[in-house]
Design brief:
mainly alpha
Length: about 250
């Protein structure tokens, strides 16, 4: 995943976003007044976390749900940036991205960006899982979200979950528009999770289907080494203990 793809704001609708924002004045005023009464310590509407749920905001968007989502996306990225520069405390991050993804359930970028921010910097992997599952429930045919879910498990803080990672990499590889590395990541994850027979099948798919000659040759080598390991019983040769990298969002 690239941070640029995850945080790119759809520019086409920004002008309309600010125009429609004016129409939210009465609604925003009511929310602000309620915030003043019930939320201590912060200026009203200072954080998207003070908004009601995305479902509650939908009627207030006056039929401009995508425009409201653009505004929420602006605020979500701003919220993340503010706390990353200051206290590194992302206490409302899940709420921020839940509001946004409820307003725009087909917008894939916020699921990905939000999940990795929650897992890596918010230290809340369970919330990251919830957000990605929400994305997959709303977009069950998204190869990108399935791949990124696999990658989320692949770099899970505290230790990779290779079986889960492989499950979602395989799911991504079967879907139209699958990211190019999906099949290779699935084979790699299965191999180092110790599922050698399954890994051989997956590497064989890479060997047969990859347009990249070097990847086909790599898959051929991996298949040969896996078969030798299974025949000799020396599986430790092909199963390595992988360290877990940290993903930094930029």
């Amino acid at each position: 995943m690239t941070g640029t793809d995850a945080v790119a704001l759809p520019r086409v609708r920004v002008g309309l976003a600010w125009a429609v924002a004016l129409a939210f004045g009465a609604v925003a005023l009511g929310i602000a007044q309620e915030a003043v009464r019930s939320l201590p310590g912060r200026p009203p509407l200072a954080e998207l976390a003070y908004y009601p749920s995305g479902r509650a905001l939908r009627p207030a968007s006056l039929g401009h749900g995508e425009t409201a989502a653009d505004l929420a996306w602006l605020r979500a990225v701003q919220y993340y940036g503010e706390h990353r520069r200051s206290d590194l405390r992302f206490l409302q991050l899940e709420q921020v991205f839940n509001v946004l993804t409820t307003l725009a359930p087909r917008f894939e970028g916020p699921y990905i960006f939000g999940a990795f921010a929650l897992a890596q910097e918010g230290r809340d992997f369970a919330a990251a899982e919830r957000l990605m599952h929400k994305g997959l429930d709303s977009n069950p045919r998204s190869a990108l979200l399935a791949f990124e879910m696999g990658f989320l498990y692949f770099v899970r803080p505290g230790g990779r979950d290779l079986p889960k990672a492989a499950e979602y990499f395989e799911r991504a590889a079967r879907l139209p528009g699958a990211p190019a590395p999906a099949a290779r990541f699935a084979a790699y994850a299965r191999q180092h999770a110790g599922d050698l027979a399954v890994a051989i099948v997956l590497w064989d798919e890479v060997r047969r289907n990859s347009p990249n000659r070097l990847l086909r040759e790599m898959a051929e080598r991996e298949i040969g080494e896996l078969r030798t390991a299974l025949r000799t019983g020396r599986t430790e040769v092909v199963v390595r203990r992988l360290t877990t990298p940290q993903v930094i969002l930029r």
